[in-house]
Amino acid sequence: MRSSGALPIVLGIETSCDETGVGIVQGGDLLANEIASSVDEHARFGGVVPEIAARAHLSAMVPTVARALAKSGLALSDIDAISVTAGPGLVGALLVGTSAAKAYSLALGIPVYGVNHLAAHVAVDIIEHGPLPEPTLALLVSGGHSSILQINDIATDITALGATIDDAAGEAFDKVARLLGLGFPGGPEIDRLANSGDPASIGFPRGLTGPRDAPLDFSFSGLKTAVARWVEQRQKAGEPVPVADVAASFQEAVVDVLTAKTIRACREAGIDNLQIGGGVAANSRLRTMAASRAQAAGIRLRMPRPGLCTDNGAMVAALGAQLIARGASPSRLDFVATSSMLVDQVLASS
Ligand code: KG4
Ligand code: ZN
User: Fold this and answer.
1) Per-residue pLDDT tens digits for 131-157
2) Per-residue pLDDT for 188 more than 90?
3) Which residue's CA is the closest to the ligand 1 atom numbered 2?
4) For the chain, how are helix, strand and coil distributed in percent, rounded to 5?
């Protein structure tokens, strides 16, 4: 390592979706976290267009690395290791980040770690709240995933205890926002609008909560359909749609199920440390309901600040730093980007 004696300086690259993120981390310290987003280019399509995302990563990659270096006051020659999202995500987008990471690794003569984006959403909290107690139970809620994970070791031992059987929580927020005529991404829009609505005004269904349903799995597609039907009926009857009430009631249904199942998972697994991560963890109602339910159940809850919940490079650097600290071998230069990388695979394979 170049920083002799000190902890290695890790540069993390995130390009799994529409954010080009570059973070620099040393141990648990955050030195830089720069983001270039192509979200505005996707807004008119109502969702991320993979080809547009990949091209935007290509033009943002080098400038975003330069900004992160400038922010931290470091030169490329100060970087000890590269960490990069190898999956899951949009494959064209992932290929831009992994190709850049391999090029930096080769040019600088430093190791590269191809890492799992989902584990990185958990690892980022180490920057904010220090070492992760293990085991920890994690609720991972993003645009592509909604899972309950048991983290025995962030570098080697992650097991999914439950997952969505259809839409991810963030996807449900985005789709419901779209049908309510709100902007993209829909999560922050619904979060804001819900503040002025009544969460108890409409009793939307709580998916997979029947006695014979899988207790730790999620389903949000029925809820999305229920919201669509409710809005349609209003419109057919010529009545105004109370958008803030619909947003608040929808959000309440999602957050109620997410928190209830997560607390149940903690109890069943006998784990009293809980971490919530991923873009939906920025949701204000999820944060307050999770805090009160965790407290009532005697569970210690950690959540990164909202800015670290959504995709960023610091989370990828944070996971790389953990892998190095635990003596993991770097990836070979021929490691592959995998759009459907499973959560129990922390490091990419060749
Ligand atoms: O983790 P993330 O940035 O990207 C993925 O890995 O998917 O998550 C993005 C998702 C989007 O669906 C977005 O609508 C949702 O997170 N999101 C939110 C909020 N902020 C972002 N959902 C609800 N409330 C929010 N405040
Ligand atoms: Zn993510």
Assistant:
1) 999 999 999 999 999 999 999 999 999
2) yes
3) 279
4) 45, 20, 35
> C-alpha dihedral over 337, 343, 347, 349, to 10 degrees?
-50
CB 48 within 8 A of CB 293: no
Ligand 1 pocket, Cβ-based, cut-off 6 angstroms: 17, 142-144, 170, 173-174, 185-188, 191, 278-280, 282-283, 310-311
Are the C-beta atoms of residues 153 and 182 closer than 8 Å to each other? no
Query: Cβ atoms within 10 A of the Cβ of 73, count?
Result: 9
Flag the least confident range among 35-44, 114-123, 268-277.
35-44
Using most ligand atoms within 8 A of CB, pick from 310, 319, 339, 343 the residue to mutate for ligand 1: 310
Structure tokens, 313: 């490079």
Q: Tokens 């989370």 belong to which residue? A: 315
Whole-structure pTM value: 0.96
Distances in Å between the alpha carbon of 45 and those of 104, 107, 275? 34, 38, 33
Which tokens in the block code for residue 261?
């199942």
Chain segment 210-244, per-residue pLDDT in tens: 999 999 999 999 999 999 999 999 999 999 999 99
As a whole number of angstroms, the distance between CA 186 and CA 168 comes to 13
d(CA 280, CA 282): 5
7 alpha carbon – ligand 1 mean position (Å): 32
- The model's confidence at residue 44, banded by pLDDT at 50, 70 and 90, is confident
Our CA dihedral for 84, 90, 92, 97, rounded to 10 degrees, sits at: -10
